[in-house]
Design goal:
7 helices, 73% helix, single chain, elongated
């Protein structure tokens, strides 16, 4: 799932902080709404990329090396683009601020979401796609695997 464009996550995070006293799981709602699980997913994908690299390096060294490079750079681009924890911090400050100061935090939310849906996130998607296409090509050309695997 791609980034959510709506920028007013303040009520969701406020609800999460308010209910955290009685329920520890509720603060995760705001984090999950901003692809918090992708952070863990990408760690698992690095292991999968490494396994594919090791399996296919003997047959298609240049192809899988390029795939690995594109994949790792793409994943490295994703981590700084994810604003989940920054939004969590801004949310708590938004609700602690006086009404005349809350506009500053909404502007900061807008800036974070622009970065999340901006160039870095797009680079993550494009490089990851190239990586998967290269690994797929190497799998299709490999005699070790059925063509359907690629």
């Amino acid at each position: 799932m791609g980034p959510i464009v709506k920028t007013n996550f303040q009520p969701l995070y406020h609800l999460a902080w308010y209910l955290a006293i009685t329920m520890l799981i509720i603060p995760l709602l705001g984090l999950l709404s901003l692809d918090f699980l992708y952070l863990f997913n990408n760690l698992i994908i690095v292991v999968i990329y490494l396994a594919l690299f090791i399996l296919l390096y003997q047959e298609k060294p240049v192809t899988v090396l390029l795939a690995m490079i594109f994949g790792l750079i793409g994943i490295a681009c994703y981590y700084p683009s994810n604003p989940a924890f920054e939004m969590l911090t801004l949310s708590s400050r938004y609700f602690a601020a006086r009404p005349e100061q809350q506009g500053y935090f909404l502007a900061a939310d807008e800036a974070l979401m622009a970065g999340y849906t901006g160039t870095t996130f797009d680079v993550y998607y494009v490089l990851s796609t190239i990586c998967l296409l290269l690994f797929s090509f190497a799998l299709v050309k490999s005699p070790q695997f059925k063509k359907s695997v690629g």
